[in-house]
Amino acid sequence: MATLDSKLVSVVGDRTTKVLRDLFGYVTVGDLLHHYPRRYLVRGELSDIAELNEGDEVTILAEVFSATSRRLHARKGNILEVIVTDGSAKLSLTFFNQAWREKDLKVGKQALFAGKVGVFNGKRQLAHPDYELIPDGNDVDAAVEGFAGKYLPMYPASAKLPSWKIAQCIELAIGALDEVPDYLPESVREKYGYPTLHQALVQLHNPADLDSAEKARQRLTFDEAFMLQLLLLSRRKELKNLEAVARPAKSGGLLDAFDSQLPFQLTAGQNTVAQEIAHDLAQPHPMHRLLQGEVGSGKTVVALRAMLNVIDNGGQAALLAPTEVLAAQHLRTMQKLLGPLAQGGMLGGSDLATQVTLITGSQNAASRKDALALAASGAAGIVIGTHALLGESVAFKDLGLIVVDEQHRFGVEQRDALKSKATNPPHLLVMTATPIPRTVAMTVFGDLDVSTLRELPLGRQPITTHVIPVLEKPGFLERAWERITEEVSQGHQAYIVAPRIAAGTSEDSDMDFLMGESSAEIASVEELGPLLSGGALKAVKVAPLHGRQSAELKDSTMQAFTNKEIDVLVSTTVIEVGVDVPNATVMVIMDADRFGVSQLHQLRGRVGRGTSPGLCLLATNAEPESPARMRLDAVAGTVDGFELSRIDLEQRREGDVLGASQSGSRSHLRLLRVLRDESMIEQAREDASTIIESGISQYPLLAAELAQIQADAAAEYIDKA
Ligand code: ADP
Ligand code: MG
């Protein structure tokens, strides 16, 4: 007999054991039983192709009519299109990067196909359907009848290990399986009427009917949400128990001096968040706080105030920024906001003053040496930097606070690398301008407390966004260039954003998730810049900016733009996050359909930051009614970042949302979908928190399961280091 911990070789042969390990990384019977079917092939309920409706889960019996594979232009890979017919009508099946299936699906072959009916370019299709081939030479009716059982589970498979083979292995494993002990507390299980773990595993792989398969799936999905919340909540409890240096607000210090010279009033939201942060900093335990705020909501000044609070207590603060452009801008902004308060030790500096310094990968040896010395001696209260801050040569006298800007670019590992530079656990403030729905925050940042800035500073003008359909209305683009010239003549500035640096390159791998194919030329900075400055924008000063330029060039270009020596920046997404030039009022985004929804929202946040209204124009070749066009319409239709991040998340794969460490075949998250399963995640969070509060040691099986997951998470962390 076998348990979930038994080695695979106890239920299947040596060869299969090796294939399962090589393909999926499976080692134990438990690993295999957590390989869940994607769907079931339901015999006796065959549909006619002519009658399929979009969204239906269907099984059809059909014959291959044609099969063609071709390479994609827009992204790496190939697509196999198979047309099948059942005599009543034809249907298209598509497979991405599975050309090997051409061997299976030869013209004339008959098979049962199962999948969800979708529509692409007005045609119904099944994308990545599952199928079971009818053996050649068989009487089809007999063959279809002949399959034993009623619901045939269809598994994620590969050429080496087809679905039916996986089903066989799982059948062997279930046959040998002892009653599986259930780690889920009975009170929780009964509350939702879930089957036991043993029942759930058996029913998912071998359901009596679709209803019990669904119940099993619910139970196992809940398990994922529940274990994840247990993990996050217990981590949070541990963090809360760590000791840190309390840095309570001091009156008459640097922070007070700063507040009294601030040229504007904090918004109500900024004040609330400031209080939350000040409260955390005053505790003898490390703060772990996420500050999420709309683009332009004024997170920087909130962070700066937290830093000054720490400096008033003799500590230092580090600010980690995702790009050199942004780090350099933070340095300038903070020096400007602080004025004489940033001139510590200098003639004319105030007594209270500190210094702000910058550490980046590309700075020259002399300025790096200076910056390192300022950080190590404690003379610099604020040390700003990119990844270079994590380097071994960087040391602090007393690092009390770490601020991470635009969190989505940094992983937990990098936060930890910086934390290790502090003698005592430092306080941590993580900032993101990509607002995320509550349950996603719970799932991704569940160990952090969350503060939210929803309002924009007073007097901020709303951004108007329009889609320019270039194919239908070519004149509109000309009009956009005229508009830029007009704005410049009124003393304003503009951005033009292109997806590429040069023809055939891409700045940003984020684009890879965009499906579909287009042979149209994609705009690039190197082509567009000269084209416009020699033509439509002849009258204004245009300069290019992109990630392949030297750090000095990028920095001097940004400075010239800030000083209004440049009117129009033609740029890639290097300006996406954080760039703050309030005088810029217009942005034209070329081939806007090439960008994700949140990315577009971030980009347009660069305009309308001053007192003049902002205008953002999304130029696209996408056809009307196409999914790409609908995404752009959604961006044009709302400036609510929370709404847009939902739209964005719906189009991304879970791994992208949760980060690499929580996806992959060995992951503990296979069924859970953060948006679809929102209410389940909230319930799981409540249940988990009750368990943690009452003490998890009362539930030995659950505690052991959690310890296992913690060990796996730690092992993954070590793997990556
Ligand atoms: P983000 O939250 O996107 O990082 P920033 O911190 O860059 O936004 O702030 C955007 C702009 O708003 C900056 O120019 C900043 O100086 C200004 N700002 C911040 N808070 C206020 C306020 N309370 N009143 C007026 N302007 C503000
Ligand atoms: Mg910012």
UniProtKB/TrEMBL annotation:
It catalyses: Couples ATP hydrolysis with the unwinding of duplex DNA by translocating in the 3'-5' direction; ATP + H2O = ADP + phosphate + H(+). It is an enzyme of class 5 (isomerase). Signal peptide: none annotated. Residues 476-650 form the Helicase C-terminal domain. Coiled coil: none annotated. Keywords: ATP-binding, DNA damage, DNA recombination, DNA repair, DNA-binding, Helicase, Hydrolase, Isomerase, Nucleotide-binding. GO terms for biological process: DNA recombination; DNA repair. Residues 280-453 form the Helicase ATP-binding domain. SUPFAM superfamilies: Nucleic acid-binding proteins, P-loop containing nucleoside triphosphate hydrolases. Gene3D superfamilies: Nucleic acid-binding proteins, P-loop containing nucleotide triphosphate hydrolases. GO terms for molecular function: 3'-5' DNA helicase activity; ATP binding; DNA binding; hydrolase activity. Its EC number is 5.6.2.4. Belongs to the helicase family. RecG subfamily. NCBIfam families: PRK10917.2-1, recG. This is ATP-dependent DNA helicase RecG. It comes from freshwater metagenome.
